[in-house]
Design a protein that fits this description.
Number of domains: 1
Order of helices and strands: HHEEHEEEEH
Shape: globular
Radius of gyration: 17 Å
Helix content: 10-25%
Strand order of the largest sheet: 1-2-3-6-5-4
Largest sheet: 6 strands, antiparallel
Oligomer: single chain
Length: about 160
């Protein structure tokens, strides 16, 4: 293998193994594999930007495509105590991002979602190892007003 081949292999390393979650007892998992990115607009690059999405769900059957953002069909059936962890990596080329911190205590909370009221979503985002791609992780819980999520459960996932 020459130097050019090594550099090309390193540049595409995030896409050599699509994003996935490891199996965890009591959780369902799924993934999209590598697809053309919905997060990056039209590109003049030789290779179109890629993305890879994966999900884990507990307490609900996952009903959406792995790339659905947000997974509204699944969220409509999310029971109290149910949890969905959804993640995507994508070839963004964004500058100025910080490295992602996978810590529910520092996750941003947002109102969610178009199709259902679940009490909100928690998001962590930033760049992945080596800054070669961007990462978004979203955690959805069915909550009552003023109820805190079961962070331990989501962190474990």
């Amino acid at each position: 293998m020459n130097l050019i081949q090594v550099l090309v292999a390193l540049a595409f390393a995030p896409w050599s193994h699509p994003l996935s979650f490891q199996p965890l007892a009591g959780w369902q998992t799924g993934a999209s594999g590598n697809t053309r990115s919905a997060y990056v607009g039209v590109s003049r690059r030789r290779h179109p930007p890629q993305e890879s999405a994966a999900w884990m769900a507990r307490g609900v059957r996952y009903r959406d495509k792995a790339t659905a953002d947000p997974p509204n069909a699944t969220l409509m059936h999310l029971p109290r105590g149910g949890v969905i962890v959804w993640a995507v990596i994508f070839d963004s080329g964004w500058k100025g991002e910080a490295r992602i911190r996978l810590d529910m205590a520092t996750a941003k909370r947002f109102a969610c979602c178009e199709a259902t009221r679940i009490g909100g979503e928690y998001q962590m985002s930033g760049y992945g190892p080596g800054g070669r791609y961007s990462v978004i992780v979203r955690v959805y819980f069915r909550l009552k007003a003023n109820e805190r999520p079961a962070c331990r459960s989501a962190t474990r996932a």
